[in-house]
Specification:
two-stranded antiparallel sheet; 2 domains
Amino acid sequence: MESLSDTESLGYCLGRPLAIATLQGDCRMATVKDRQPVLSPLEIRRGLGISQEAMSSLMRVSVKTISRWEKDHGQPRAPEQLTRLAKLKEISELGRAVYTPEGLREFLSVPLPVFGGRTGFDLLQLGDYEPVLGALAADFEGTGF
């Protein structure tokens, strides 16, 4: 099996499209080692400023599972858990762009009229991410609710 040379384009190997060459076993695919997960539960939890217990409640898993993901630099495999984690990452990143860490915790923990008198955390536990993202986006754009 031959490997890609420096002069070959990423899309071709031995003059053939990479997908065809790979299927025929002509070229070796490069691998990435020790890659950090794109969705780091630890970074997301810290960004939200919450405990492992609160994160486990939002993710609908045990505290032990959260601890294992954080210790092993892992992440969920189930699609619904990956979706939850991706939404929490989006909320964490947007929230940190808008607020201080203390301000984000307050935004998520104080009942707001825009959330029907519930807290942001209440909505997140229900899996209702869009109102929280919408309120953060409005605050980011300066329009507020």
